[in-house]
Design brief:
By secondary structure, the chain is α/β, with parallel strands linked by helices. Helix content is about 30%, strand content about 25%. The protein has 17 helices and 28 strands. The radius of gyration is 24 Å and the shape is globular.
Length: about 525
């Protein structure tokens, strides 16, 4: 039997006998020892229900049961498929059946989601009731045993979504998750007396890999928020003494949109770690709360990662490590170095922006039962991230969006992420998304969705004053939304924005060709843009 060294099971078992508080959720507090004991009981149940390697689905909010079942699966050598509770009907059934879950753990609040679904061969366990307690009772004396676990055991099947097709279930083994936890704990100096606040959904890789795993590796505590709440963020942080949190997508913007108070900096947070906050929001967060946000980049599948380090230029994610290159996906040639002018404007985006590729060894472990998607990621023996970047002469990488976010305006390639960073400075903007809509003749036009307040004259003056806004970057269309549409993981729902284009219920403004100011876009404007304009249909 292969050594269990470097497994999540080993980290779980190490907490046996540790009687410090280790898990908080609302009014419930468990010690590290109680967590290890409860995980051992669930692992013993799993051993009676399933063979090693079998999969369990977890359809839960962020309750204590979630980390308990993750820990139990590690001990029993099973894998957890995180099931997204925002999926419905056939799509939800597809996720459960595609990952071949033989047991599904859920809670009473989510039972209506399962009503009418055909899930042959799936045993449903409902947490929190007498029947559930009776099921676990015979295993109450179990001790955590990590002896049989292997670093190569599958532990996570977490869904990653693209703009098209069904979500793909990325595989993460015990060895990769344990290594990620130890690496992040070391990078950020996580201590046993730290408390990690987990407010992002645990069915997503961010919360488990970047928040729960480093806490487990360091013996730190974990505080759970059932579902993310911007209004409850600071109160939770103070209540639990949280020192670290992770975020994805628009979460930081939602926190910044809450009412500012004079005592906001009175909090125990040491840092936040995540993606997509943007330079302007990160600076605003640090000013208001006294907390540094560390922006990192890591593909959900683990195939490439970029770490921020001191000296990283503003707007850059970090320096490219060994094997990381920016390639033209058509020619496979490396893109020229990005050239910026004194104002920070990218001068050669057309040739400098390409796809980030890892040509070196990487821990990508594939997708469950999806060879086509796996082949798309693994081409020429390399890992293709599907993300756009440019790289400067010093090796620093700048995120430019997903490959689906590329815009081509008047023959020039533009990066949505770079335009968003500029528009985020607009005083009335709480959140901004930039995406392409078809040009009536050829290529694309720039469209922006803006959550906040919009004044056409102020916005026009703002654009004119931005030294790094290129001549093709100014939005042709502006959609003013009350709240930015987001996915279940708080990422902007770009596919929905692109699909709705000019046909949406929100106010639309546009800058007609040859004009400098914005005016309301009418139905007649849409109909007369061009008979061949796909957005006018």
């Amino acid at each position: 039997m292969e050594s269990n060294r470097g497994t999540v099971a080993e980290l779980v078992a190490a907490r046996w006998g540790d009687h410090r508080p280790g898990l908080w959720c609302e009014d419930r507090v468990l010690t590290h020892h109680q967590v290890a004991s409860a995980a051992a009981a669930r692992a013993a149940l799993l051993r009676d229900l399933l063979p090693p390697g079998a999969h369990i689905g977890v359809l839960l909010d962020n309750t204590p049961e979630y980390p308990l079942w993750l820990s139990a699966a590690a001990l029993a050598r099973n894998a957890v498929a995180g099931v997204n509770p925002t999926r419905r009907g056939p799509e939800l059934a597809r996720d459960i059946l595609h990952t071949e879950c033989r047991v599904l753990v859920t809670e009473p609040a989510h039972l209506p989601l399962l009503a009418g679904l055909e899930l042959p061969g799936v045993r449903v366990l409902v947490t929190g009731g007498e029947e559930y307690d009776a099921l676990l009772a015979p295993y109450a004396g179990a001790r955590p045993d990590a002896a049989e676990a292997s670093p190569r055991d599958r532990l996570l099947l977490y869904f990653t979504s693209g703009s098209t097709g069904a979500p793909k279930a990325a595989i993460c083994t015990q060895g990769r998750l344990a290594a990620a936890g130890r690496s992040l704990a070391g990078q950020f100096g996580v201590r046993p007396d730290d408390v990690h606040y987990v407010c992002m959904p645990m069915f997503h890789g961010n919360a488990v890999i970047a928040d729960w795993a480093p806490a487990l590796a360091a013996g730190a505590g974990v505080a759970l928020r059932r579902r993310f709440s911007a209004a409850g963020f600071l109160a939770d942080v103070r209540r639990y003494g949280a020192t670290y949190f992770t975020y994805v997508g628009r979460a930081v913007q939602y926190v910044l949109a809450t009412e500012e108070r004079a005592d906001d900096r009175d909090n125990p947070l040491r840092m936040g770690f995540g993606t997509e906050a943007g330079a302007a929001d990160a600076a605003a967060f640090e000013r208001r709360f006294g907390v540094r946000l560390v922006e990192g980049y890591g593909s959900s599948e683990g195939g490439a990662a970029v770490q921020w380090s001191p000296g990283t230029p503003a707007g850059a994610v970090g320096r490219a490590g060994p094997g990381l290159v920016v390639l033209d996906p058509r020619t496979r040639a490396e893109c020229p170095a990005a050239v910026f002018d004194g104002a920070g404007r990218l001068l050669n985006g057309d040739e400098a922006i390409g796809e980030l590729v890892n040509q070196g060894p990487n821990p990508f472990e594939g997708y469950w039962r999806n060879p086509a998607a796996e082949a798309e990621r693994r081409r020429d023996g390399w890992y293709w991230t599907g993300d756009l970047f440019c790289r400067d002469a010093d090796g620093y990488l700048y995120f430019a969006g997903r490959t689906d976010d590329r815009l081509r305006v008047d023959g020039e390639n533009l990066a949505a992420a770079m335009i968003e960073n500029i528009l985020a400075r607009y005083e009335g903007a709480h959140a901004v998304a930039v995406y392409a809509v078809p040009d009536p003749v050829t290529g694309d036009q720039v469209m922006a969705a803006l959550a906040g307040t919009f004044d056409p004259e102020t916005f026009t003056a703002f654009l004119t004053a931005q030294p790094d806004l290129g001549t093709k970057m100014a939005p042709r269309f502006v959609r003013v939304v009350k709240r930015m549409p987001v996915t279940a993981t708080n990422k902007i729902h770009r596919a929905l924005l692109r699909r709705e284009a000019l046909h949406c219920p929100d106010p639309l403004w546009w800058r007609p060709p040859g004009e400098q100011t914005y005016r309301i876009l009418t139905t007649q404007d849409i109909e007369t843009l061009s008979p061949g304009d796909p957005t006018a249909r």
